[in-house]
Amino acid sequence: MNAASGVTVHLLIAEPFQEGPAATSTSDALRRLGPAVQLELHHEVRVAAAALRGRHADLAVLDCRLGDDLWSLLQRAGEGATPAIVVGEAGDEAFALRAFRAGAAACVARGPALADELSIAAREQLQWIRRIKASVPPDGSKENVDNVSRYSRHVIENMNSAVLVIDRDAMVSYANPTAERVLGAGPGELTRRDIRDWFPGAAPGDVLPLQTLENGTCFRGVETVLTRADGTLIPTGISCAPLVDAKGIREGAVAIFQDLTEIKQLQRQVLQTEKMASIGQLAAGVAHEINNPMGFIHANLSQLTEYLDDFQKVWAHVEGLRNASGREVLDGQEVREAASALDATIQAVDANFLMRDFGTAIRESLEGSERIRAIVTDLRAFSHQDTAERALCDVNRALDSTAHIVWTMMKHSVVLTKQYAELAPVVCFPMQLKQVFMNLLVNAYQAIEERAALEELRGEIRLRTELQGEEVLITVSDNGAGMPKSTLDRIFDPFFTTKEVGVGTGLGLSTSFNLIRNHGGTLRVESEPGRGTSFEVRLPLGDADELL
Amino acid sequence: MSEPLPVVLLVDDEKHILSALSRSLRREGYEILTAGSADEALQLLSERQVDLIVSDQKMPGTHGIAFLTEVERGGSRVPRILLTGWPEEIPQPEIARAGITALLPKPWDDAELKSTLRSCLAR
């Protein structure tokens, strides 16, 4: 970029004050952008926020070392429509994902290449800002009309979203380079092709741009699958709007879409991470529960081995007595000696006690093994229907088997009450549902522990199911610590956690929220600090015919 | 008159654990007392002199570590053993605060149990 374009852009940097050579790296990198870029460096969050509110900066660069202040600055930048580049730690993908979700225009990683990456990202952003600044509001002059149309074309050709324009006959009349890239087509290969070619096996009504063409319906960010030129399918998020001419007559439609493959992969990873975290908690609870019976069975078995040694000593004397008394010519002295040796051994090993306790030890061990067997049965019930397929599921059973498993870790401090109504089966992904129940139960338990640490508390978790029309309502309430409104507002945000480091992933409730939403249901929460929390899951019964 | 037997107090909410521990220690020459909770154990301690305490960690109500800390606060010098399935999860400062002499894993090894008790009593 050079100063010849004659436009000065204003760049705001917010980073905490650091001493030493590393301190200047962000601003140094940005100084490379040349004299036409004015830099404004802030170490004070409050001042940076005020500057962003003033909206005089064209681009903001925010450093992750600002901690939580980063997110409020990012929000402030978004409110003022100031694009923001975020500097994160290398390899922290979760941070990058969160930054993008919070509206960052780009995210670069701190590391040896920071200066290069930052200047490339800033250049990209600044190119657009320059163009916008250079395009004077249209005053109708030919020069300005040309400027604006050149500018618009430039924007469309360089944007990172795919754009397809179709004519009245549903033929593609324009495709931008991103559309060609996403659909795997060469330059110009998309034009004059039927839009239906890219919608695999869809009924005509499912081809969204056609609906737009026919009814003028607009769509925003609908997830749909498209076919690439090589036949592979890709998940996309698509928006459609009608194109109307100057007289208001519909002459075509425009479809804008993004390739969601990477986002979907990330979502799957997040889901997997969360599932592993839940399984970890489950495993800890089960291990505790199996450990006690294992403890006494193990001890009893080694004790029974000692008892057997003692019995063998007694038996040796029984054999001696049998030999002595079985001779053809009885030797009274020998028999008496054998009998008294037997008697002495019986006394020495306390055989009467051994006889009684042998039975007790076996009975207690059997009880222990029965308990372990019951836990395994619970686990089997819990993992029943662990399938990636949709299935008809008895929600009461799914909730109950999950509660039973989670129960093992909380039974010392919590009373569980259940109120199940008779329900119709629900079409769902049963394992996902159980994962949500487990999350809610574990959260309830942790809230109770939190309150119990402060005051005398009889912990209580109430489970309730109801059938309401075509919906099943599941309520999980606790009398734990509860949450203030500030926490409630963010409770379903990814990575938001109030738990100590290592206790929560901050993904449990956001994952639960998404899982329930994917089922066409809702997850709601009510809470009062110091009184407790209630989560409410609503699930549509769904259409069992879909499973056929 | 013979020496009185050393008195060992076993504390666990699981009665089969108490039974198995007593069974393991049967021939060790101790007088064995058992308690099903920290409260019951504290009651017993107010009535009787004991020479050694063996307590489970995870119990309803007061956990083992809190119970033993309470014993320590009462100024007792009785050696004490904490029985736990997850010895590595208990922070060192808490062990010190509760005046714990030794940790024993659960499930325990009989020989280790016996030798640990003997060495604690010999202190």
**CATH class membership of the largest domain in chain A:** Alpha Beta
Shape of chain B: globular
Sheet with the most strands: spatial strand order of chain B: 2-1-3-4-5
Helicity range of chain A: 40-55%
Q: Approximately what portion of the residues of chain A adopt beta-strand conformation?
A: 15-25%
Low-confidence runs of chain B: none
Let me know the number of strands of chain B: 5
Averaged pLDDT of chain B: 93
Strand line-up across the major sheet of chain A: 2-1-3-4-5
Keywords:
A: 548 residues; Rossmann fold; Beta-Lactamase; 4 domains; five-stranded parallel beta sheet; five-stranded antiparallel beta sheet; 17 strands; 47% helix; B: 123 residues; alpha/beta; 5 helices; 40% helix
List the helices and strands and how they pair.
The complex is a heterodimer of chains A (548) and B (123).
Chain A (H helix, E strand, L loop, with lengths): L8 E6 L10 H7 L5 E6 L2 H10 L4 E5 L5 H11 L4 E6 L3 H9 L4 E5 L3 H21 L7 H17 L3 E6 L4 E4 L1 H6 L25 H8 L3 E9 L5 E12 L5 E10 L1 H66 L5 H18 L1 H33 L7 E3 L1 H16 L3 E6 L6 E3 L1 H23 L6 E10 L2 E8 L6 H4 L19 H11 L3 E7 L3 E9 L8
Parallel strand pairs in A: 1-2, 1-3, 3-4, 4-5, 12-14
Antiparallel strand pairs in A: 6-7, 6-10, 8-9, 9-10, 11-13, 14-15, 15-17, 16-17
Chain B lengths: L6 E5 L3 H10 L6 E5 L2 H10 L4 E5 L7 H10 L6 E5 L7 H6 L4 E4 L4 H13 L1
Parallel strand pairs in B: 1-2, 1-3, 3-4, 4-5
What does this structure look like?
The complex is a heterodimer of chains A (548) and B (123). By secondary structure, chain A is α/β, with parallel strands linked by helices. Chain A has 4 domains: 3-134, 3-Layer(aba) Sandwich (Rossmann fold), CATH 3.40.50.2300; 158-259, PAS domain (Beta-Lactamase); 265-373; 384-547, Heat Shock Protein 90 (2-Layer Sandwich), CATH 3.30.565. Chain A has helices at residues 25-31, 45-54, 69-79, 93-101, 114-134, 142-158, 177-182, 208-215, 261-326, 332-349, 351-383, 395-410, 430-452, 485-488, 508-518, and strands spanning 9-14, 37-42, 59-63, 84-89, 106-110, 162-167, 172-175, 219-227, 233-244, 250-259, 391-393, 414-419, 426-428, 459-468, 471-478, 522-528, 532-540. In chain A, strands 2-1-3-4-5 form a 5-stranded parallel sheet, sandwiched between helices. In chain A, strands 7-6-10-9-8 form a 5-stranded antiparallel sheet. In chain A, strand 6 (162-167) and strand 7 (172-175) form a beta hairpin. In chain A, helix 9 (261-326) packs antiparallel against helix 11 (351-383) and helix 13 packs antiparallel against helix 15 (508-518). The longest helix of chain A is centred in the middle third of the chain and has 66 residues, at 261-326. Residues 1-5 of chain A have low confidence and may be disordered. The model of chain B has no long low-confidence stretch (mean pLDDT 93). Chain B is globular, with a radius of gyration of 13 Å. Chain B contains 5 helices and 5 strands; from the N terminus they run E-H-E-H-E-H-E-H-E-H. Chain B is of the alpha/beta class.
